Structure formats: structure tokens, C-alpha cells
Amino acid sequence: MAKTASERQKDYRNRRSMAGDNGERRINTWVTTAVALALKRLAARYGVTHREMMEKLSVRRLTRSAERSTTMTQLRGIRISKPIRYAVTNQPTYPETPSFN
Asked: Which of 20, 27, 41, 42 is the most buried (most CB within 10 A)?
């Protein structure tokens, strides 16, 4: 007897959970229109699927977070005796002009 569409779909989803090195998981969620359009534009720009774009963005973010946390851990032991102050002005700075007297 032939399988029904729902039985075939169930088998497919069960196989996907075991696919690859670590299996795959299904994500079904709602996002804002802006996020959906941004994902569509990014995927089209780089010539990849939405799934590939989401995976690349997620892995890149995790990598940056890991690098930053390592740096912050290294910096926690450093103590600064005086705070660093930066002057912010709206005036442009020009080199001194020579005077010809």
C-alpha cells in the first residue's frame, strides 16, 4: 500500500534530523517584514539561499562574540590608574601656517 503525503512528509522530517554530521533542526518563526526583506536582499546579493545566508550570519556573529569575549577576558586583568579622556570639538584643526615677515 502506498504511503500518504503526510506519512512521506513525516519520514522526510525524521531523515533530516539525522542528516549531516550533527543533524538538522527545523525553525519555523515569524519575523518583521524588514528582517525578511533584508534577508532576501542579502541572499540575492551573495547568490545564496535564505538558509545559507542565515547560517553564515549566525556563525559569523558567534565567531565575533567568541573573539570579543576572549579579548575582554584578557583585558579584565589590566587596571588603568587614570581614565583616558578624549577631547571632542567641532572645530577643524589646521596645521600652523608659516609666517613670512
From this structure: 42
